Amino acid sequence: MKVRVDPERCQGHTLCAMAAPDVFELSEIDGHSTAVNEDVPADQEDRVREAAKSCPEQAITIF
Ligand code: SF4
């Protein structure tokens, strides 16, 4: 499973980083999120799915 954050959509709500703190990293400059690593570790998959659901901007793509 892979994950990507669309930088155009992300508005820095931080919900993804709360759901999966080991996977999403927030910029210290603008608070926007990026995936630390596109490949999601197996034990993080449920958290990443939760994060994708909770993102108000639908900025998180799982593929
Ligand atoms: S929840 Fe969505 S909008 Fe908020 S920081 Fe994460 S990716 Fe960006």
From TrEMBL:
Write the record's keywords in alphabetical order, separated by commas: 3Fe-4S, Electron transport, Iron, Iron-sulfur, Metal-binding, Transport
The residues forming the signal peptide are none
What InterPro entries does the database record attribute to this sequence?
A: 3Fe4S_ferredoxin, 4Fe4S_Fe-S-bd, Fe-S_cluster_ET
SUPFAM superfamilies documented for this protein: 4Fe-4S ferredoxins
Under the heading Pfam families, the entry gives:
Fer4_15
Q: Which Gene3D superfamilies match?
A: 3.30.70.20
Q: Which cofactor does it need?
A: [3Fe-4S] cluster
The chain positions of domain 4Fe-4S ferredoxin-type read 1-29
| PROSITE patterns to which the protein is assigned, alphabetical | 4FE4S_FER_2
Q: Which domain of life is it from?
A: Bacteria
What function does the entry list? Ferredoxins are iron-sulfur proteins that transfer electrons in a wide variety of metabolic reactions.
Protein's name according to its UniProt entry: Ferredoxin
Organism ancestry: Bacteria, Bacillati, Actinomycetota, Actinomycetes, Mycobacteriales
